[in-house]
Specification:
Length: 111
């Protein structure tokens, strides 16, 4: 059984796509925690960051994050990138993904 992010990456579940590359799809979060809250989702399934040994994909995450930050003008005032890993790290969907949040001053408190 595929996870929800696998289905989103395959376009089996509709989502608001902001940007796509060969390896990553960027969507709007359905429960945003900031005015701009995007999810960067790899098309390949890795349950957590710790299971991803694909260094090119990990580098692509940051390249795509910079590209999408510029596209949505988050580069002008700043943004936050977050990768939650496992339950205690706050991960709720067990498919590696990165949050890009911007659009208001974000708390310095991380937990």
């Amino acid at each position: 059984m595929e996870c929800v992010f696998c289905k989103i990456a395959k376009k089996e579940i509709p989502s608001k796509v902001v940007l796509e590359t060969e390896r990553i799809v960027v969507i709007e979060d359905i429960s945003p925690q900031s005015p701009t809250h995007l999810l960067l989702i790899p098309r390949d399934h890795y349950p957590t960051l710790l299971e991803c040994d694909d260094r090119e994909l990990l580098a692509d995450f940051f390249t795509v994050a910079m590209e999408v930050a510029r596209k949505v003008n988050a580069d002008e005032r700043g943004f936050r990138l977050v990768v939650n890993t496992d339950e205690e790290g706050g991960q709720t969907v067990f498919h590696l993904h990165m949050h890009l949040m911007a659009g208001r001053p974000l708390s310095g408190r991380m937990g």
